[in-house]
Amino acid sequence: MELSATIPALLSQQVATYGSETILRKKDRGIWNAITWSELDGHVREIGQGLRAAGLAHDDSVVVLSETRPEFAYADLAILGCGAAGAAINPAEEAPRVGEILRETGASFAIVEGEEQLDKVLSVRVDCPMLRGIVIIDMKGLRDFQDPACVSLPRLIAAGAGQPDWRTATASVAPNQTAAILVPGTSPVRRVTHAEIMRLIDETGGTFGVRAGDERLVVLPMSDPTERVLGLYLALKHRIVSNYLENPETATENLCEVKPTVFGANAEAWERLHARITAQSEGAIGVQKALYQWAIGAGAGGGLLAALANLLVLPAVRGQLGFGRLRVAYVGDRAIPPEIDHWARALGITVRYINPFQKGETHA
Known about the structure:
Elements: H1 7-18, E1 22-28, E2 31-36, H2 37-53, E3 61-65, H3 70-81, E4 85-89, H4 95-105, E5 109-112, H5 115-124, E6 133-136, E7 150-152, H6 153-159, H7 166-171, E8 178-182, E9 190-193, H8 194-208, E10 215-218, H9 225-238, E11 241-244, H10 251-258, E12 262-265, H11 267-282, H12 286-301, H13 303-312, H14 314-321, E13 328-331, H15 338-346, E14 351-353
Parallel strand pairs: 1-11, 3-4, 3-5, 4-8, 5-6, 6-7, 10-11, 12-13, 13-14
Antiparallel strand pairs: 1-2, 8-9
């Protein structure tokens, strides 16, 4: 199949071919709800038409300030479908930094998760002259809130219902247009084109050996390129199912439920996993503790003892982590510490470090 030139073209192609397949899941009240390619496309189209009706134009930019959730993915893809560029702000950022990013990106619209993030944008918008509108995903606590520049997501969608054909709009997006505006901490933003992203996710997917039907658990903020580019966009290209957490506190539980085959995280996540298993082993009875320590040592050493440890002990440890099916693991912020790398390799897991947006280098 020919490589799509833009992310909107990729989405259109996948929807046309695999419309009834599941591509996302979101856990809500204990139930994993599946979202098909066609349903994803419908959500993206509704938001995109709403943004066009609100005046979003080609080459504009939009920031999204929210926890990672399916609505964030819909909004991000809708922004790109409009021919605009999207920037993701870490929801932990304070208002002054939010204002800096709004100005650096020249954002004409901001999409915020709810009241907390809305307050940040409202407090700095007087210093952001290019900001024309704010879209609110969750109106909880804002029932009586009124502001002529603000609109709820449902109202934005309703206002865009009469827009011209969405497919025509997305087809006009060019490969050399900016797609993602990456916001790496306090350093200057970086603009990445559709063509750069499409080439990267094609090459990275081949390097990692991902395949259709793989499963991943979404654990990082969309402001992290490891999630946005090497997570969401990579998953769309290679038909990897993205599973969204019920909330951050259920990450460990959800990891064991999903049993991902692909896991993109940050180094801190691996440090926490190592600390959890180490603490559990320290609290185990004598024989169990000794077996764990022997198995990790044997697994790291290779040979016959490693094979024996992998037969008798290590599958249970990987199962406790939710990694019984894991084939591909990677981090994008920094390489994991040597002791964590040693531990992961003893378990039979190679955690790759890949950061193609740092000085143009890729580590894999």
